[in-house]
Design goal:
Strand order of the largest sheet: 5-2-1-6-7-8-9
Structural class: alpha/beta
Shape: elongated
Largest sheet: 7 strands, mixed
Oligomer: single chain
Order of helices and strands: EHEEEHEHEHEHEEHHEEEEEEH
Number of strands: 15
Amino acid sequence: MTLRLVFMGSPPFAIPTLEALYQEFEIVAVFSQADKPTGRGKILTATPVKQAAQDLGLTCHEPENLKDSQVLGILKELKPDAIIVVAYGKFLPKDVLNLPPLGCLNLHASLLPKHRGPSPISAALLSGDEQTGATVMLMDSGMDTGQILAQSVVQIGPGDTAGELHDKLMEQGAFLMVETIKKLAKKEIVSVPQDESRATYSKLLKKTDGLMNWNLDASRLDRIVRAMNPWPGAFFLLGRQAVRVWRGSPLEGHGQPGIVVDVTSKGVFVGTGRGLYCLEEVQAPSKKRISAPDFARGKRLKPGASFTEGHDIIV
């Protein structure tokens, strides 16, 4: 199918969609965020999407402002049938939204209208949802408020992390986008307005969101650990250190919140507001990930040790 597409995206989540579209349609240009300084050396680094576009031999633009008349002129010259947006990181002005005849299509990692906003995958885990999914919508001027074209469902397993769901959704979303564009071009699909009464919003995560409050239920703490994996990371306080939690599990039992109840070969058992939380894999600052029992031996942790009296947090 000969369709001219402009693709807009920045992080790794967008790459499978770009690659899938490249196989099926004509990508006339890619738009991505500008190079940014990264690492200790602050070396200017291209976004993952820009790197992928270069590998495919595609032209990549990095405008600071899509409202710029010169940018709009470039888009008009490209004459795209549709503009595809996946985690681009910039709002599209009305002049851009109204440009392509098939519209601007966005891939969002939730079952809209639930979990609009920047962190839908983590929000689904934090909410204790049993399923999430991918949505392709026609973009409008709101934040993830456009009419829905297609959705696909992904079940959330009891141990799934945000990183694991991210990988599932980016692959499933790529397939969904390709199929949606094909049907849209053939007029075989009808958009459906979102139910505003069911809308919820996710927030942009920050590092402090990962701090484990041991007064919460163990099941809630488990959702936090999985939702913050791999970023920003859940952590507890041990003296002057913020110890990252990579893996754990909620259990029945009783214990004072934040106090170590037991240390075994299976993990470090900590009291919570309800139940116990078993730490299984952790990471001290500037150290490697290790099993919680090995960490406990190195720190000589015993029942009665407290994870609630930290200060001068190192995150």
